[in-house]
């Protein structure tokens, strides 16, 4: 698709960090996460500067999510667990999600993806494909999420997983893609990772399955 001039110009932001004047930064709370109050002003699109304003920012660790997909069986691995942020959900605070975890500064994103897949789902991951890196809620939170697709063999997966020291109680489900897509349409999969990952998979599923079939055929040929 050809890009017009307006689309092309959006590839480079008009303003950057130097176009913000940070007047004061104050820590309101420091626990596992941090809450800060910022007083700042910034440049305006019509010229000049905004008036000073206060913004509160929730500082979180960056996170990695993994869409675990078995192309041979056309199935995904979903994990189910209690989520404190959804405690007032009108249906249930137990959510179906993709495997995910926080980034340790000494780990690569790929290492986090493989570690969390093993801890949360008992699952060894083959190749990893980067889907997107995004801010879930940049108006109030600095967290960035990197989402991968990890190819897996779902045979024998299931059961209860998670680390006791992190109070994890995770039930693992292996679900066929058509069923997962139905759950998405019903609103049962109501988090950003699932929405982004599954819409990406819907576009890539045929090529992933074809590549898996070719690899299987080559393997059978080599064994003959």
UniProtKB/TrEMBL annotation:
Alphabetically ordered keywords of this record: Hydrolase, Magnesium, Metal-binding
Highest taxon listed in the record's lineage: Bacteria
SUPFAM superfamilies found in the cross-reference section: Nudix
Keyword Magnesium set for record: yes
EC class: hydrolase
Protein name: ADP-ribose pyrophosphatase
Known EC number: 3.6.1.13
Binding residues for Mg(2+) 1: 116, 120, 168
Catalytic activity reported: ADP-D-ribose + H2O = D-ribose 5-phosphate + AMP + 2 H(+)
